[in-house]
Write a structure and sequence with these properties.
By secondary structure, the chain is mainly α. The protein has 14 helices and 4 strands.
Length: about 300
């Protein structure tokens, strides 16, 4: 599914004359997923309220597996997590089904190091559709593969939780993304398997995917740039709503080491709240932050003058 690009197909011209190889397996699977998600909307009025709450809870867990896990912990090492928290985040990441932690983090490091070049897996300069979902429907650009191999991923290789999830990724996805969300409403409060599957598994999965993809597309095209006007990533509060705090993208690309991926204050950032709570429980430590003087100096030097 997302990110799996190992099969070929007919080619068509792409950006800068590059020929894109369509991965028809991914096109078909994505089409089926979205057809199932649209059908699931019909089932919403027929489902028990607890089922809808469960689907939303699964969405939050799914999102945290990406935002607090693959992104802020494993891609950027912006804080440290104890073993129980890393295990939870790895399981949540399997519920997200967006490639295993190792591949997600490696590709994301390439996205930051080579942002909006051919080595960027979802290069926004190739258009909205490509950066949102199209990059998953074609083979990766050769630069993504070539330069991705040169990235330092020693920390990911040394993390036993990352390697365990990678080794057993398929079975963990089957259980966390589809089986558990479906069986809980059926077994505990008697929801039909049909409703449980389409609402808590399929619809929840599709919505979570788009929440992540909006960061790659919308947050690279629409919004202001108060921290660095010379880069494409933007501040987009609406994206932050769907991606539980990941929409403050101009800040994040300016200060990628910051565990909050935004300035604190009134920003809607549930992922930061989650990490802070884990720190209170003693399960997370060493949160990295950009200092206020550092932020203000950068705004004055490279910002676009917006608030």
């Amino acid at each position: 599914m997302p990110g799996a690009q190992e099969q070929g197909g007919p080619e068509r011209p792409g950006a800068r004359g590059q020929r894109l190889t369509v991965v028809w397996r991914n096109v078909v699977l994505m089409g089926l997923l979205h057809a199932g998600a649209v059908y699931a909307l019909v089932l919403v009025p027929r489902a028990q309220p607890l089922t809808l709450l469960w689907a939303y809870f699964c969405f939050l867990v799914t999102a945290l597996g990406v935002t607090a896990g693959a992104h802020r912990l494993w891609s950027h090492r912006s804080y440290k997590a104890k073993l129980p928290l890393r295990i939870f985040l790895a399981a949540a990441n399997s519920m997200a089904f967006q490639n295993d932690i190792f591949e997600w983090a490696r590709d994301h490091r390439a996205h930051h190091k080579y942002s909006e070049t051919d080595a960027d897996p979802h290069n926004a300069r190739r258009g909205f559709f490509f950066s949102h979902i199209g990059w998953l429907l074609v083979r990766k650009h050769p630069d993504v593969i070539e330069k991705g191999k040169k990235l330092d991923v020693a920390d990911l290789l040394a993390d036993p939780v990352v390697q365990f999830q990678r080794k057993y990724y398929k079975i963990s996805v089957l259980l966390m993304c589809f089986v558990v969300p479906t069986l809980v409403p059926w077994y505990i409060w008697g929801e039909s398997l049909w409703n449980s599957y389409f609402l808590a598994a399929i619809l929840r999965y599709a919505i979570a995917l788009h929440g992540t993809w909006l960061v790659n597309s919308v947050a690279h095209m629409y919004g202001n740039r108060p921290y660095d006007k010379h880069i494409s990533p933007r501040q987009n509060p609406l994206v932050a709503l769907g991606a539980i705090g990941e929409g403050f993208h101009n800040y994040h690309h300016t200060f990628p080491f910051d565990y909050s991926a935004s300035e604190l204050g009134l920003n809607f950032n549930p992922t930061t709240w989650f990490i802070d709570f884990m720190c209170l429980l003693g399960l997370a430590t060493d949160r990295k932050r950009a200092t206020k003087p550092m932020i203000e100096a950068r705004k004055a030097k490279t910002g676009d003058g917006s608030a």
